[in-house]
UniProtKB/TrEMBL annotation:
Residues 1-170 are annotated as: Disordered. Its cofactor is Zn(2+). Keywords: CBS domain, Hydrolase, Membrane, Metal-binding, Metalloprotease, Protease, Transmembrane, Transmembrane helix, Zinc. One of its GO terms (molecular function) is peptidase activity. It comes from the Bacteria. Residues 66-75, 107-122 have a biased composition (Basic and acidic residues). This is Site-2 protease family protein. It holds the Pfam family CBS. Its main location: membrane. PROSITE patterns: CBS. It comes from Streptomyces graminearus. Residues 424-483 form the CBS domain. The chain crosses the membrane at residues 178-198, 210-233, 270-290, 302-325, 346-366, 386-403.
Length: 547
């Protein structure tokens, strides 16, 4: 809303938000004759809903049409509880019908007239007047008082909505209350494992024929079940340390436990990272013990051997000391413990992770072609070499990008406390639904505010006037455009506490993506409006400063 004052919008003033009192009380629309301002018809519009004599002649046709039609459109929005407006008309119709029938049946007429009058007394003919008197009374009250009745920010009669699911694929279950999703990419890697393992089974158990692919598919599912157990170990440890877990996702290369907060101590960080590989080692041991009584060269023997080896590989790979692997988090915890600075641990583990990415890209194909992974140079064909190189490139890319993301996330968490809702909030003024835009902007200018909150007669916030919508309204049309037509309805998630800061503030904004949010005090008072653009600018500015 940083447009010049001559346009009728709030002056930008100092763009640096500062602490300010709660929302000022809007002045009574017709309390006094306002002094002439640059906004022309804005001031008279608040009192009469029509422009003053100083309005340009060229605008006369438009305002006349708006003056005729606006009350019809705006009445339902202004008084949402006076819906039965047709009842007085129905009563009048009953009375007219009774008069016409009076010539034929006098006694029925009198009874019908008495009934109509009785019904008319019961109809809400007096209700609009009473509601209008109450409405006008509330218009002069400060809308910063904690409202009564329905919860602020929620439409009357609207049930609370359940929290949004994080999503991320097919929901498989909720162990320990944490949703587990299978990403679409899993089906690709499951098909790849089925094809590769099926080729190996053809050499070991040729008598299976085409059934080997069913056995291979079972192996792929069992392998990812082991990966899920690995991730559940991280989840259980996080829950034990009272760290929220958003979800578990099984994807192309393994699984991810999305823990929303960092461990508070390096010791907890180490334990949180180590339990995953530890449980993979335990699974490998269990598969080894289960393989002992099984005859080698059979389907159960081959499956158990494959699961034992795959879990050993998962444990060994995750113990590599570089982010984003579990071993990298363990290294981070050790450096954090030594230096006392979590950022130093992150930097060290991230750069080791990037070195590991280069080592995997170069070393994995060489190791496999030299027979270090069970192959041999004479047995390796061109397709095997290309497959090894492609696999190494994908793994290296995952490790490199994961290390970089870990480093960026650490810098983000370091600067997050600088983001505080109270200091970023714009001062706002409350206006009712039928307030013309020009009058609303005049009030905002007078109060030094840069945002508008649409409220009902009881002071409950209903919606937020969008800054982008204001800019799109020509100045000469602003006296005829009600603020309700430029506002975005408030939802529960769009109400944020003025006390939020850092990661909690960002979580609240991520829960309901919007351009503006209503900021309230703990008492329910309207503190102001938080613009997502202001948060983004403050965040970029904070991230630009050196750590």
């Amino acid at each position: 809303m940083d447009v010049s004052g001559a346009s009728g919008q709030p002056r930008s003033g100092d763009d640096q938000p500062t602490d300010h009192p709660a929302v000022p009380t809007p002045p009574p629309p017709a309390a006094e004759a306002p002094a002439p301002t640059e906004d022309g018809p804005d001031t008279d519009t608040a009192a009469t809903g029509t422009p003053d004599s100083n309005a340009p002649d060229s605008n006369t046709p438009g305002p006349e049409a708006a003056r005729t039609e606006e009350p019809k459109d705006e009445a339902p929005e202004t008084t949402g509880t006076t819906a039965p407006k047709t009842e007085p008309h129905e009563t009048g119709a009953d009375e007219a019908g009774a008069d016409q029938a009076g010539a034929d049946q006098a006694e029925a007429d009198r009874a019908g007239a008495d009934k109509a009058e009785t019904d008319g007394a019961k109809t809400p003919e007096g209700t609009p007047d009473t509601a209008a008197d109450t409405h006008e009374t509330h218009r002069t009250l400060a809308h910063t008082e904690p409202p009564t009745g329905p919860a602020p920010g929620m439409a009357k009669g609207e049930p609370p909505r359940p929290p949004k699911e994080p999503g991320g694929g097919i929901l498989m279950g909720r162990p320990f209350g944490v949703p587990v999703y299978v990403a679409p990419s899993w089906f690709l890697v499951a098909a790849l494992i089925t094809w590769v393992f099926g080729g190996q089974l053809d050499r070991v158990l040729p008598e299976l024929g085409a059934a080997r692919y069913l056995v291979s598919l079972f192996f792929a599912v069992a392998f990812y079940a082991s990966v899920l157990v690995h991730e559940l170990a991280h989840t259980v440890a996080a829950i034990r340390f009272k760290l929220p877990v958003r979800r578990i996702q099984l994807q192309f290369f393994g699984g991810v436990s999305e823990i929303e907060k960092e461990a508070e101590t390096p010791g907890r960080e180490f334990v949180l990272a180590f339990v995953g590989p530890l449980l993979s080692l335990v699974l490998a041991g269990l598969f080894y013990l289960a393989m002992k009584p099984v005859q080698p060269g059979t389907v159960p023997g081959v499956l158990l051997a494959g699961l034992m080896v795959s879990n050993l590989i998962v444990a060994a790979f995750n113990l590599l000391p570089g982010l984003p692997l579990d071993g990298g988090r363990m290294l981070r915890a050790v450096v954090w413990k030594i230096t006392g600075k979590p950022m130093s641990g992150t930097v060290a583990a991230a750069w080791v992770g990037r070195a590991l990415a280069v080592a995997v890209l170069v070393g994995l194909p060489l190791l496999n072609s030299s027979g270090g992974l069970g192959g041999g140079t004479e047995e390796s064909g061109g397709m095997d070499t290309v497959t090894d190189a492609l696999l190494a490139a994908i793994l290296a890319a995952i490790i490199w990008t994961g290390a970089g993301n870990s480093l960026r996330m650490a810098r983000l968490r370091e600067h997050l406390p600088e983001l505080r809702a109270r200091t970023l909030t714009r001062r706002a003024v409350p206006v009712e639904t039928d307030t013309p835009l020009s009058e609303a902007l005049r009030r905002a200018n007078a109060a030094g505010a840069r945002a508008l909150v649409v409220v009902d007669a009881d002071g409950h916030p209903l919606s937020l006037v969008r800054e982008s919508a204001i800019v799109g309204v020509p100045e000469h049309r602003r006296p005829w455009v009600p603020v309700s037509g430029l506002a975005q309805d408030l939802t529960d998630d769009m109400r944020v506490s003025a006390e939020l800061s850092g990661e909690e503030l960002l979580d609240a904004l991520r829960a309901a993506p919007a351009t503006e949010y209503l900021v309230v005090e703990n008492t329910g008072e309207i503190y102001g409006v938080l613009s997502a653009a202001d948060v983004e600018r403050a965040f970029v500015k904070a991230m630009a400063r050196p750590s």
